[in-house]
Specification:
Layout: H1 2-15, H2 18-25, E1 29-33, E2 37-42, H3 45-54, H4 56-65, E3 71-76, H5 104-113, H6 162-173, E4 181-185, H7 192-205, E5 212-216, H8 217-229, H9 233-242, E6 246-250, H10 259-274, E7 278-283, H11 295-301, E8 305-308, H12 314-328, H13 334-343, H14 348-365, H15 371-387, H16 390-401, H17 405-408, H18 415-431, H19 436-442, H20 447-462, H21 466-480
Parallel strand pairs: 2-3, 4-7, 4-8, 5-6, 6-7
Antiparallel strand pairs: 1-2
Helix pairs in contact: 1-4, 6-7, 8-9, 9-10, 12-13, 12-14, 13-15, 14-15, 16-18, 18-20, 19-20
Length: 483
């Protein structure tokens, strides 16, 4: 069951935005498991409420895909299950509950894969360094925790990322001839987060600065709103304007349409720039291409060096796989690595998924890792992806919403047309490799409209309404190849 949880979590990571995974899924820890279900540890009660409202159905879906129908419970560290489980007979009043013993399966996985690879290591729950949600507590000092493996030493440099790597390292080393502002541009899964966090790791490890704040644009927005509501806005301003030496801000596109946050961030950036502080941004689009972004913030985001990370070429993919294999502590034959590198060419995350699947299946089935095994795993990854196109998604969406393809391509601004069009653009971005400009032009729209559409649907999905159910229904059809 432990491995099933890790496999389900790994699949969830591919199906939701990265910042959402880091905030809500990654902190979960497996506390107990049996044939009937699992108990997951969380930092607090609000965390449980959020998980149940937004992600519980996703958990059940992924376990169902693994052939399991289980009961999922949640428990705050130090408390008892929120569904009303009773105290253990061995637990006396005033004494904390015993921690679950490490299972043989846990030891096996750790010995095989190593705890350095979080997608594979089964974590035993321990109290996190911050027990409240990032961005919601004014006392939270440095944003998110930097990932342990996201260092310059662990980044595989290729022609696709050489300039971005050099620029990031130069900024981290504090070279006077280097830029103090860096904008990392690239698609999801290519290494933007790795490089931006590597800057923070380097500066702290070399005692250049310990005041490194790593947050997403969503974190920044949530924290500002919390401060306003709780009359602590001055502390919020002081934190980012006076107590920050390095600001790492990810997912800039999230600021689209958030006027108040944009104004506050623009002022904050002025303070940091005047004090010669370091700033790293990352995003999937250039500042000028993000809709509903005010001119003041656009100009500040564009002041620094813009570096783009592209998809890795074959040689780089092969080197990435070799390094990941070593990290897993598994000997993967060269022929298998070469096969994976040839078949999976979109991004680093896809490579990791393929390698993890091959290694995990080999361990579970007790088989040697060979080409035949790799093909059986990668067929499931590549089969549907090759067949999915923007035109196919248009047809599915039009059928689901009972409109014509002529309607979805029209200039109509009626809600019954606009909403399906936005859904189609969102699904096109999720399931195809086409750039956002291509997606926009496929619907006879500007790329800014496509970006806005994707962001709008992401917000509606969080509300878990009827539209979310329709999108999940279409997504299942796409993933199952039923088109």
């Amino acid at each position: 069951m432990e491995l099933s949880w890790e496999k389900a979590k790994f699949q969830i990571k591919k199906s939701i935005p990265e910042h959402s995974y880091r905030m809500w899924i990654e902190p979960l820890a497996l506390l107990e498991c049996d044939a009937a279900g699992i108990t997951l540890g969380t930092p607090n009660d609000y965390f449980i409420k959020r998980i149940k409202e937004n992600y519980l159905d996703i958990f059940k879906r992924e376990f169902s895909n693994l052939g399991r129908s289980i009961d999922i419970k949640f428990q705050v560290n130090g408390k008892h299950d929120t569904k009303g489980s009773k105290k253990s007979p061995d637990q006396k009043k005033g004494q904390p509950a015993k921690q679950p013993a490490k299972s043989p399966a846990n030891n096996l996985i750790k010995s095989k894969f190593g705890s350095a690879y979080p997608a594979l290591a089964v974590r035993q729950w321990k109290k996190p360094e911050q027990a409240t949600l990032p961005g919601l507590d004014a006392s939270f000092n440095g944003g998110r925790m930097l990932k342990k493996g996201y260092t310059f030493d662990d980044f595989v440099v290729g022609d696709n990322s050489n300039f971005a790597y050099s620029a990031s390292l130069s900024l981290a080393q504090g070279n006077k001839n280097g830029a103090g502002i860096l904008y990392l541009l690239g698609k999801t899964g290519l290494g933007k987060s790795h490089l931006s966090q590597a800057v923070g790791h380097h500066m702290m490890a070399n005692k250049i600065s310990n005041r490194v704040y790593y947050v997403t644009a969503e974190d920044f927005t949530n924290e500002m709103i919390f401060s306003l509501r709780n009359h602590t806005i001055e502390r919020f301003k002081e934190k980012y304007r006076s107590k920050c030496d390095v600001l790492i801000l990810e997912d800039i596109h999230f600021l689209s349409g958030k006027i108040a946050t944009q104004k506050e961030l623009a002022i904050t950036l002025d303070y940091l720039l005047d004090a010669d502080k370091k700033i790293i941004f990352s995003g999937c689009e250039l500042p000028d291409e993000i809709p509903k972004l005010n001119d003041q913030l656009k100009s500040r985001l564009s002041m620094g060096l813009v570096t783009e990370i592209e998809a890795p070429d074959y040689k780089t993919r092969l080197r990435i796989l070799k390094k990941k294999s070593n990290t897993l502590g598994c000997k993967v034959p060269m022929m298998v690595n070469e096969y994976i590198a040839q078949e999976l060419c979109d991004d680093v995350r896809q490579l990791e998924s393929g390698l993890f699947g091959v290694v995990a299946k080999g361990q579970i089935m007790g088989r040697n890792i060979d080409i035949e095994l790799a093909k059986s795993v990668l067929d499931n990854i590549t089969k549907n992806r090759k067949r999915i196109s923007i035109d196919l998604i248009k047809q599915l969406v039009c059928s689901e919403f009972s409109i014509s393809e002529q309607d979805i391509m029209s200039k109509s601004r009626k809600r019954i047309i606009v909403k399906p069009r936005q859904v189609a653009m969102f699904l096109a971005k999720k399931y195809t490799d086409q750039p956002i400009k291509k997606i926009g032009s496929s619907f006879k729209k500007y790329h800014a409209t496509a970006i806005y559409s994707v962001n709008a649907i992401e917000k509606e999905i969080k509300q878990r309404g009827v539209l979310c159910e329709q999108i999940n229904y279409i997504s299942k059809k796409i993933e199952a190849g039923k088109f």
